[in-house]
Every structure is written in C-alpha cells, then in structure tokens.
Amino acid sequence: MLDEKFVVRKRVRGKFRIALVYPSTYEVAISNLGIRIIYHLLNLDDRIYCERFTAESDRSIETGSHLSEFDLIMFSYQYELDFLEMAHQIARLNLFDKPKIIGGPCTCNPYPLKCLTDYVYIGEAESGLMKLIEEMMDGASPKNLASLEGLFIAGVSEAVRRTYPRRLDTFLPALQVSSRRSIFGDALLLDVSRGCGWSCLFCLGKNFYAPYRERSLDQLAEVMREGVIRGDYEAVALIASDLSRYSRLEELIEIARELRRDRSFRLIAPSLRADAMSEMLLELLAESGEKTITIAPETCEELRYRIGKGFPDESLLNVCKLLKKHGITRIKLYMMFGLPGETMKDLEEAVKLVREIKDLGFRVRVSANPFVPKPHTPMESEEFEDPRILRRKLKFLRRELGRILSTDGIRQAYLQAIIARGDERIGELILETVREYRKPTLAAIRRKAKKMGINLDDYAKRGSEERPWRRIRLT
Ligand code: SF4
Fold first, then answer.
1. Relative to the CA of 309, which ligand 1 atom is closest?
2. Yes or no: is domain 291-421 CATH 3.30.750.200?
3. Which CATH class is domain 188-290?
4. What is the value of pTM for the model shown?
5. Fold match, 4-123+125-153 / 291-421
6. Alpha helices in 232-312 (DSSP H)
7. In this predicted model, what pLDDT tens digit does every residue of 416-440 receive, in sequence order?
C-alpha cells in the first residue's frame, strides 16, 4: 500500500507516454525532490502523461502499465550502484531500441552509460528537459538534437557542458506527490537552495549543482503556505546542502513558525553544517518535534581540514551542546575512512570525537563508508585505498564503536569506485554481467572482467586511464 497523495491521473489514450524510472526502492524514490519536480513538470503538458516506476516493478505506479509500453523512458541516476539496476532492467526487458534519457548527478561521467542509451542529459531538468522532450515528440533525429545544451549523444555530441537554470525560482509544486513511506514521512519537500558555498575537495554534489543559488523567500513562502494549507502535509523538509547559509533564513523560519500556529506539521532539515548552525533554526526544529540531527564531520579534525571541510571538533561539540539545550538528543554522524594519507591515529581521533559526543548524553549513530574518489572533484586523481587495508580499518571502527556503527561495506565502495571513474568498457562489463545475474556479486563481476581482459583493481584504484569524463564541462 503506497498511500500516496497528489498522484497525477490522466486518460492514457492519445498521450505521449513517459516512464520516469528511479532504479531503487520505492522509499528512496518517493523521497527524492527531483523526481517529484520532473513528474509534475512533465504532467503540466496535456499532450504528455508521465508515470513513475521503481526497481521493484516493471509496472507503473499510476496505471499499472508495463515499462515496454512507453514512448520514452527516463532514468534518474543518483547513485553509482543504481547502474546495475538500470542495466538489468534494460537488458531483461530488451529496451535497447526504445528512446531513453538518463539524467542525475552520476551522469557527470556519461561514458559507462553509452551501452545503455544514446541520450544522457547532464544538468538540472528545468533548464532544458522540456525542450528536449518536445523535440523528441516531433521526431527530431540525434543530429538535430546535438545543439541542445547539456545533452550528451553517444557518438554524435560527446563534449558537453552541463545545463542549469541561472535563477532558481523555477517550477516547485506545492501539491506534490507524497507518501508516508518516504524517509521524511508525508512531507512537502522544498529545495531552498542548490549548490554549496563550501569547497570540500571530495564533493561531487558541490560541483554538479554549482554555482550556489537560492530560491526567493517569496516563492518558498507561497509554496510552503499552499502546501501546508491545501496539501495538509504532516511535515515540511527544507532541503539544502547548507541550510544555515540561506540568506533569508530567519524570515523563512518566522513564516514556518507562523504557519505552525494554525497547522501542526514537523519541520525537517535533513543536512546541517556544524560550523554554521542557526540557533533559531534549531529552536524551531526542536519545537516541531525533531529529535535527530544529521551532521557530516567526515573524519578527524586534521584530515577534515586537509579535505577542505575546515571546521574544528570544537564547533561540532558546541553545536551538540546547543542541540542538547533544545532537547535534541539523537545525532547521526556521516564519516569516511580510507582518505589519502589517513593513518590509524586519525581513525583513533575520529573515534575519540564520537565518544566525546556520546559522553555529552547523545544517542549517536555513525554511518562510515570508504572514501570513493569522484570525477570532476579536486580529489578525482586520488587512489581508492587497497580493500585489505580498508577491511582492517573497518574492523577497527567496528571494534571501537560497536553497534552504533553502520556501513554499506567495502565491496559496495569498491564497485562504486569502478563505476564512478569508469569508461565504456566498465559499462559493457556491468551490462554483460547483469545479463547473467539479477544481482551480481563482486566475484561474478571479477570473473567476467577477467574474461574481458579488464583489470578491475586498477579501475578501482585509479579509475580509467583515459579520464573520459574530462570532456564534460560542469561549469
Ligand atoms: S558542505 Fe557538503 S555539499 Fe558543501 S561542499 Fe562540503 S560536502 Fe559538499
């Protein structure tokens, strides 16, 4: 039972049918604001009916239609390992000849995708997706489409510049599709800003969504009011890389506070920076019942400065004291290990920081994963650490932190590293493997790589020697 509201219902007959696929679970898909925006944006057009799919079914959520019935299939590629699911869906249903567009931040390296699709849309949907779809509806050939900004066309137009709206007051639906099964609950999602004013050297998000842009207070206020009053959402999530940086934050908080006098809803701020925390925001989060805050200190203080996330442990500890003062006593910390130059001493320091936070009376959860070098970042040429060393480091963290630690594991990160800095051969390797296995293990991928003469360890460690993604310009 999806328990959704604001699902778009249309008559199917005579429509240009678009399948919008999020190749992961329903919970992750419905929590993604990008999917909600694209879904409603495309459905504004009477000629189009856009329906949603996840990895869990070949049938659409809206009408139960099969994926193969659609005129155009669009995939949202947010996370490297979703490549496996996309490849599997395309191969299993033999969708190779269907028009397909892949978009999302992982398209910053479109080369592994060439075996799956001709069209990769690199950038933010609002600036050019509608134009692309209109051209496709009119039957434009790849050659005619080559001049569109942000559109990578395999073999036709491969040196591409990312496209994005210069001003952010773009379409933001107030009555957006939502479900209690989203990770935020039944929530209205608002992207307060895109891009990030900080410069962490490992961060792809900063570069994919650059430059930093803010929505106007007027637009946010209007959408929040309409959403809360007419949409009756149980929560409002303010989405931003660093919410505290929003220039009209105090006024925005005041508007939310006023609305909460009439309607009860939870306010959620999914990610905050420890060195720029607004006390007013914390107060409102606490007032609205928020019990958990997520912060990403990444590593110990010294390494944190070296990777460009320059704030001292002291700032984090001060924030914790502030959280406590407002009754927020649960904290989730995102950490990395396997960073270049990292020693066991650095990990000991990171563990010490976690213990200090626990000692302040917090229920702490730590999510720790290996550092994966991403293309288009200043750390794109760093090495992915030897998995044997990573395993030792993870063992140490497990021993020291016990059950508060969660991780996706070394194998996942290894595969992520291969795909993130991969090339066409890596795309073909994954495609060939998923043709045989629904969910291939790393051992199966290794066997196939050996047959194809691909040295997987080299790809994981350093990425493709060709560095093909450098032909793509993000700024
Ligand atoms: S603060 Fe977060 S989003 Fe911004 S650059 Fe650093 S890691 Fe990226």
1. 6
2. yes
3. alpha beta
4. 0.96
5. no
6. 249-262, 279-287, 301-306
7. 999 999 999 999 999 999 999 878 9
